[in-house]
Amino acid sequence: MTEDHYFTARPASADERRTIRVTLAGRDVEVETAPGIFSPGHVDLGTQVLLRQVPDPRGRVLDVGCGWGPIALEAALRGADSVTAVDVNERALDLLRRNAARLGVAVAAALPDDVPAGATFDTIWSNPPIRIGKEALHALLTTWLPRLAPGGEAYLVVQKNLGADSLARWIAEQGWGTVEKVGSSKGFRVLRISA
Q1: For residue 44, what pLDDT is reported?
Q2: CA-derived radius of gyration, the chain
């Protein structure tokens, strides 16, 4: 039996689509989800904590590890100039495209390699995939956090018991900007990286 992870490129589980009701940007909306992606039944607690803590997005927004799209959709609904969302899970990207169309917002959902190498972002919001392991997580953040434009801000939400404080120290050591904890709720920390 194959075990799917939300960071699997092509989930083996049946692609059984269903519609759920969630609240994004203060609105009750319907979105489409399916098995084989992260948090298919609701907006997960970490993402809820992040979205309550972040200010309105500025300029070009990037959502790293977008899943079916709660962060990217929230940024678009809150008036971001543009939203790019990346994930390795092709089912999740298809769901995000369908959800953006359903909500009437523009989101560019892409595989990581499909984002132009020189693209920079004013805002990065992410509930990063901690469970991919420390080495892969560091590689992921090393790919995207340096893409912050001068004056830009990244906000990450990480469970305290899954290494939020050690991750904050590691990010600070990379020299990408100032790192600070700007919120803590329900066992999660929200980190802000200012370029």
Answers
A1: 96
A2: 16
